[in-house]
User: Which sequence fits this backbone?
């Protein structure tokens, strides 16, 4: 995400002959964080269980905005993750204290979109 709050494309295209086969058609992947981050599970997203932060934020974003675009989906997921990041883990005792310290010292996850083709994420409707 840029300083102005818009998602930007980064080119990570592999040159032919690097062991990857060229994709025919549009392939899109959404992940829970950048390569230099770790995806988190947290009880802060659910009253009853630890679930993936990205999975939770993805479901909430799709439910809240049916027919959304990929850009809005990523922004809604990011907002949901940042909102839940501040909630303390519900684990008791030493383990809970340890988890809360680890979460407080880690960076907040940034949802990522990868695609076989560049497209306008603010205009293309999200399709599941």
Assistant:
């Amino acid at each position: 995400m840029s300083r102005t709050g818009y998602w930007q494309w980064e080119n990570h295209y592999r040159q032919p002959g690097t062991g990857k086969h060229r994709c025919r058609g549009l392939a899109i992947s959404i992940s829970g964080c950048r390569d230099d981050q770790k995806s988190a599970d947290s009880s802060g997203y659910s009253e009853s269980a630890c679930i993936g932060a990205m999975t939770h934020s993805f479901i909430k974003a799709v439910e809240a905005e049916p027919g959304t675009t990929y850009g809005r989906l990523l922004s809604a997921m990011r907002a949901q993750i940042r909102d839940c990041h501040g909630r303390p883990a519900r684990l008791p005792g030493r383990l809970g204290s340890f988890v809360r310290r680890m979460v407080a010292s880690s960076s907040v996850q940034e949802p990522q979109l990868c695609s076989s083709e560049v497209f306008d994420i603010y205009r293309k409707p999200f399709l599941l």
User: Anything to note?
Assistant: Residues 12 and 18 are 13 Å apart (CA to CA). The chain has a mean pLDDT of 73. The radius of gyration is 17 Å.
